[in-house]
Write a structure and sequence with these properties.
The chain has about 350 residues and is α+β, with helices and mostly antiparallel strands. The chain has helices at about 5-20, 35-40, 105-110, 125-155, 165-170, 210-225, 235-250, 280-285; strands spanning about 5, 50-55, 85-90, 95-100, 115, 180, 185, 200, 230-235, 270, 275-280, 290-295, 300-305, 310-315, 325-335, 345.
């Protein structure tokens, strides 16, 4: 007996859909907290335009001297015009990944495919064999897709001009220079430079003075100063070590730590009120950013897939001269920031915990 071509194709499509859209895709092999975080807060936008665009405003009439003026009797009053609303815009990009399964591979797994419409009978054993084979192929494909998307969303866009410019294109090494979303960070001012993210480098780690902890508490106030509500801190391993060093020095263990058992040297998650957990992101180590921490406000930094184009599975026709199955998955969208001063990057430099 043999599997009909349409039956086999449906099984491949259904299994691929399960793998790339299921939760397991983002939890395999190596954690990818940035990818999961951005996917969970993503917001679609309609097609029909070249950019993802949003109105932003950082300067107000009150930033102009004399807006609120005292007067008496017939004093002349000054009239001011409201400051214009600006628009940020980010070009959307298209990415694709392809999967090919040859009929030869299927035969080696004991599966025969026919496109003869009269031969549509198949055994349960063949279905099980096909599904088992697909689990291996598609788990590889889904993990590879997740890795590639995660790497792209961390990158600065220089790796490929046709890919989405990621977090490092927005939270750069030079907050006071460059352009983000079409607005110049160095000139967008109004009493304060509002179109700039926070960045501090070479922060000292001190068991005695608690320097890193104090800096982070101060910075959280600054990130919230203009309405930001940061809710995610993604850190490299060295930054986590720095936090642990300062916490251990003051004995701030939870009931899950040393206090329960003299043989337990573990520590619960490190948290900050008003922010949440400091979460380790292995990708930062891979990028050489193990000493960094990226603090993000999910309302202000958001993944924007185009409607109907988020992990879209396509079924290219098999070329007549090739005996293969072809599947393509595409994604179209952008990474959008609408408030830079709600985001911050912090680095502990060459700190060594050992």
């Amino acid at each position: 007996m043999a599997l009909g071509l349409s039956v086999a194709d449906d099984i491949v499509y259904t299994t691929l859909t399960f793998y790339v859209r299921g939760k397991s895709m983002y939890q395999t092999v190596q954690d990818k907290p940035l990818l999961g975080f951005l996917k969970s807060g993503s917001k679609t936008f309609p097609g029909g335009k070249d950019y993802v665009s949003t109105a932003v405003k950082g300067t107000f009439m009150s930033d102009t001297a004399g807006f609120l003026a005292g007067y008496s009797e017939d004093d002349a009053l000054s009239f001011l015009q409201s400051q214009a609303v600006r628009r940020v815009q980010y070009p959307w990009r298209e990415v694709a990944a392809n999967l090919i399964i040859s009929y030869t591979e299927l035969k080696k797994d004991g599966i025969t495919i026919t496109d003869n419409q009269k031969e549509q009978t198949h055994s349960q054993t063949e279905l099980i064999r096909l599904t088992s084979m697909l689990e291996e192929r598609l788990s590889d494909f889904s993990e590879s897709w997740a890795r590639a998307m995660n790497s792209m969303l961390w990158a600065d866009g220089t790796q490929d001009a046709k890919q989405v410019a990621g977090v490092q294109s927005i939270m750069t090494a030079t907050p006071a220079a460059g352009i983000t979303g079409g607005i110049d960070r160095g000139t967008a001012s109004g009493g304060i430079y509002w179109w700039q993210h926070r960045r501090l480098s070479n922060i000292a780690v001190s068991s005695q003075n608690q320097t890193l902890s104090k800096v982070l508490r101060h910075e959280l106030v600054q990130l919230r100063r203009f309405g930001g509500r940061p809710n995610k801190a993604l850190c490299g391993s060295t930054f986590i070590d720095g936090l642990m060093t300062e916490i251990e020095a003051k004995g701030l263990y939870t009931q899950e730590g040393f206090s329960r058992s003299s043989n337990d040297i573990g520590m619960d998650k490190i948290r900050m009120k008003g922010l949440g957990d400091f979460e380790y992101d292995p990708t930062l180590d891979s990028l050489g950013l193990q000493g960094s921490c990226y603090i993000i406000d999910s309302r202000r930094l958001k993944l924007r897939p185009m409607e109907g184009e988020d992990n879209k599975i396509m079924n290219p026709e098999r070329p007549y001269q090739y005996m293969v199955f072809l599947k393509t998955m595409t994604w179209t969208g952008a990474l959008e920031c609408t408030q830079l001063n709600a985001l911050g990057v912090y680095d502990v430099g060459n700190f060594n915990a050992f």
